[in-house]
C-alpha cells in the first residue's frame, strides 16, 4: 500500500512538450529565414510567440513556380541543389511569429521584390511576420497539418536557450530529444 501511495504522490514528468507549428510546401518552407520573412495566408491568427516551420510531405509546386524562384534556390543560402533534395515531412526551423498584418495595397507596395516572389500577396490576405528564424541543422521528422497546429517535442532533457536579443532574464526552455547539434539550443 505504501508503494502505491508514494507512486501516487511522486510527480510525473510529461513525455512531450508542445510548440505551435505551421506547414509550408517546398520550396517556400526552405525560403523562410533566408528570403521569406512573411508567411502569406488566407486567414488571420491572434497567436504570437515561438513557432516551428514544418515542410510538407508533398511538394505541390509547378515547374513554372520553381523556375520563378530558381535564382533563390541555389548557392550557400539554399544548400540542397534542387527542390527534390529539400527536406519534407519535417520541422526545419523555429521562429517568432510576431505579427499578423491584413494586406493592403500600401503594405504590399512596401515589400521587396524578393519577398513578393516568396508568397501570395493579395489585398485582403494576411502576412504572418516571422522573425529570429533559426534554421535547424537536422530536420525533425513530423507529420504536418493545415493551419496552426501543435508540434509535440519528445522530452528527454532540459535545454535552456539564452539569446542576446532577449531582454535580461528572458529565456526559452525546450525539453527535447534531438541531437545537441540543433544550433538554436547551443547558442
Amount of beta strand: 25-35%
Query: Mind telling me the CATH class?
Result: Mainly Beta
Strand order of the largest sheet: 2-5-4-3-1-6
For the terminal residues, how far apart are their CA atoms? 47 Å
Number of strands: 8
Question: So how many helices?
Answer: 6
Task: Please bin the fraction of helical residues.
Answer: 10-25%
Supply the CATH architecture: Roll
Tally of individual domains: 1
- Cα-atom radius of gyration: 19 Å
Low-pLDDT windows of residues: 1-10, 157-187
Q: Would you tell me which CATH topology applies?
A: Archaeosine Trna-guanine Transglycosylase, Chain: A, domain 4
- Helix/strand class: alpha+beta
Order of helices and strands: HEHEEHEHHEEEEH
The shape is globular
Structure description:
- This protein has 187 residues and is an alpha+beta fold.
- The protein has a single domain (18-151), classed as Hypothetical protein (Archaeosine Trna-guanine Transglycosylase, Chain: A, domain 4), CATH 2.30.130.
- The protein has helices at residues 2-9, 28-31, 63-69, 105-109, 113-117, 183-186; strands at residues 16-24, 38-41, 49-55, 90-102, 126-141, 148-154, 158-161, 172-175.
- The model is unreliable at 1-10 and 157-187 (pLDDT under 50).
